[in-house]
Amino acid sequence: MAEVNIEIANFITGIPELADKIFEGGSKFTDNIINAYNHVAGLNSSWNGKRYEDLVVAFNNEQPKFQHMTTLLCLTLPKALNDVAANYAAVNGDTAGQGTTLEITLQKLNEKSALGSMRFIESEVRAQQQSIEGFLNDAKAILDGLELNLEGVWKSDAASKYVQEYESLRAEVSSSVNTLTTSFTNLMTTALAEMQEAESNSTVTVTGAGGSEN
């Protein structure tokens, strides 16, 4: 039988309160991610074509990491804490409070763009970029400020594993945010240059009556 190491288990109030704190942080993180993705979807009214499609693919590629963090903070970890509190309480003949849990599914973006259509309204795209990056950076800041202080209420091998999973995933999410903000800037710059080149190449100059056109 494996050795059991349980030093602290504040199951009446400490663990349920921590579950609620984690859920609250997860909810705020998720709200920012959803807002970012909704704005990327809405960006289609100002920008479409291949580079916009590339942006959508980039966001969808990072979605699993955001989903993992949402599930960890809003469901998996709060539920684990609730179960731990209930189990410890039962052993002690007490009843523990239960923190909030919720299963949230983040939707991926539609990768199908309008065929044969190109649009790039620079002022609107830049405004949306600022909003989208703001949501992503706010989501990252929420994670940076969310300390899983499990040791104060639950110090065990299982608690340590959850903390390690969170810290690893937090680093991945931070990397995803940096990847997306860089991709957005690069794709927007490329799209603008391509649009300008296409516009320049499509310009027709009339030399005069009876003359040739270039």
Describe this structure in words.
The structure is a single chain. The chain is built from four helices and four strands; from the N terminus they run E-H-E-H-E-H-E-H. It has 214 residues and is mostly helical. The protein has a single domain, classed as Ferritin. The strands form two sheets. It has a two-stranded antiparallel ribbon. It has a two-stranded antiparallel sheet with strand order 2-3. Helix 1 packs antiparallel against helix 2, helix 1 packs antiparallel against helix 3 and helix 3 packs antiparallel against helix 4.
Short description:
This protein is mainly α and 214 residues long. It contains 4 helices and 4 strands; from the N terminus they run βαβαβαβα.
Stretches where pLDDT falls below 50 for ≥5 residues?
none
The order of strands across the largest sheet is 1-4
Label the CATH architecture.
Up-down Bundle
Mean pLDDT: 85
Topology of this protein?
Blueprint: E1 6-9, H1 14-42, E2 47-48, H2 50-92, E3 119-120, H3 122-145, E4 154-156, H4 157-201
Antiparallel strand pairs: 1-4, 2-3
From the structure above, extract its key features.
mainly alpha; 4 strands; single chain; 214 residues; two-stranded antiparallel sheet; Ferritin; 66% helix; two-stranded antiparallel ribbon
